[in-house]
Design a protein that fits this description.
This protein has about 200 residues and is an alpha/beta fold. It has helices at about 20-35, 40-50, 55-70, 70-80, 95-105, 115-125, 150-160, 170-180, 190-204; strands at about 5, 15, 90, 105-110, 130-135, 165-170, 185-190. It folds into two domains: about 5-15 and about 90-204, HAD superfamily/HAD-like (Rossmann fold, 3-Layer(aba) Sandwich); about 20-85. α1 (about 20-35) packs across α4 (about 70-80). Magnesium ion binds near residues 10 and 11.
Amino acid sequence: MFKVIIFDFDGTLHNGEKWENWTEYMQQTIDYATAQLTEQERKDFMERQNITYNSNTADVANALVNEFGTAQGMIDFQSKNIYRLDYQNMKFVDPEFIKKLSKKYTLYIVSNSPVASIERHFRHWNIDATLFKKIYFNQFLAQDTTKGVFYKEILANEKVMPQEVLVIGDNFRDDLVPAQKLNMQTLETHNLSNLYSFFDNLEH
Ligand SMILES: [Mg+2]
């Protein structure tokens, strides 16, 4: 049985559609992160790295790290622009569910969204952020751009076996593959009722 739970945030603790202006938002992100390039150089870079203005955060971060060794420009831009991160039709996890889990397990979040953005959502949805021992923002560190670098840190801090950690996420490649590489347990979930019934079944 596991003692520690690591959650992804977007698509896992809430379900919502990407905000309407994602393409515009990602264009501004990439333009900011590659301000040193000419328009043509930026086009070439995006083609070479196989990204578009519709790509997700993790793919753009990887492209930036591959090309320039860092995604810091993207992190800076997204941290400064958290108030734009509004989802359509957002359904958020039940605060009581998190409270109940926190009595039994040590909870963490490892997210591709800035911590300030997550905390802002928590305030809005009445979730006590301190129920999570720590919230990590994936900084896409060049030596390991996956979430694995944070999973390892949590393992070391908690002094538990990988099998005692459950990683929950909606993105198999970004959330769960790095966990499986470390022999952690994983749960893929795409809606909140999925999540609730998993823990219901554990109890019965
Ligand atoms: Mg997600």
